[in-house]
Design brief:
CATH class: Mainly Alpha
Helix content: over 70%
Shape: globular
Number of helices: 8
Oligomer: single chain
Low-confidence stretches: none
CATH superfamily: Rhodopsin 7-helix transmembrane proteins
Order of helices and strands: HHEEHHHHHH
Number of domains: 1
Number of strands: 2
CATH topology: Rhopdopsin 7-helix transmembrane proteins
Radius of gyration: 20 Å
Strand order of the largest sheet: 1-2
Largest sheet: 2 strands, antiparallel
Amino acid sequence: MDTITPFQFSLVYNAFSFTLATMAAATAFLWLSRSQVAPAYRTALTISGLVTGIAAYHYLRIFESWNEAYTLRSGIVAATGIGFNDAYRYVDWLLTVPLLLIELVLVMRLSSEETMSKAVRLGSAAALMIILGYPGEIATDIPTRALWGTLSSIPFVYIVWELFSGLGASIEQQPPAARSLVRKARLLTFASWGFYPIVYMAPYVGLTGGTVTTTIQIGYTIADILAKAGLGILIFLIAVRKSEAEGAGSKAYAG
């Protein structure tokens, strides 16, 4: 177990607590807001809320695991001997990362064939990216971490290409009122996902012990908030704008 300071323990502790509350609140908001958009976009909001709901559950488990791994008493942090479980994050990502891409595709309301094709390709690539990244995350040496991180980056590059090339023409078909928001959602997805590999590489720059543990946990937590709750709010705004543009303002669906 890494040795961490009281400040590092509290920083991670509070970050997990804040993220759990954020994900739970986002889930309630997204599901309760389904009536404010046209029926065609309610599935996207349902999936978006499912993403944050799954994340809220796993952050509860992560929070509990952190408290089981370390104790803070009288200003002293002690390791309990119970290992902190990093697997919760990867189980969460395996479920939520493909859904994040699917919700973005669904809110664009493409043809049935195009929606199915892009959802399957992007969802499969996202799952493969997570599966390949996990062996490196739990590796104890840099070469092994680097190997699996490199392999994981292959499907990541494909996803980026799809977001900016494959979806580029489809974005131009969106209503003008929603087009800029769709671009922002795509950019947020790219930016937040691009932050994960940076955090993943924290041990490469010489960080060790409690510093690297704290950096990784805080970094992943920030990326999760942006990628899940942040994107969920944008999905809602896109759905509202498109509902209004299609002559079905949000008030028409109240109740």
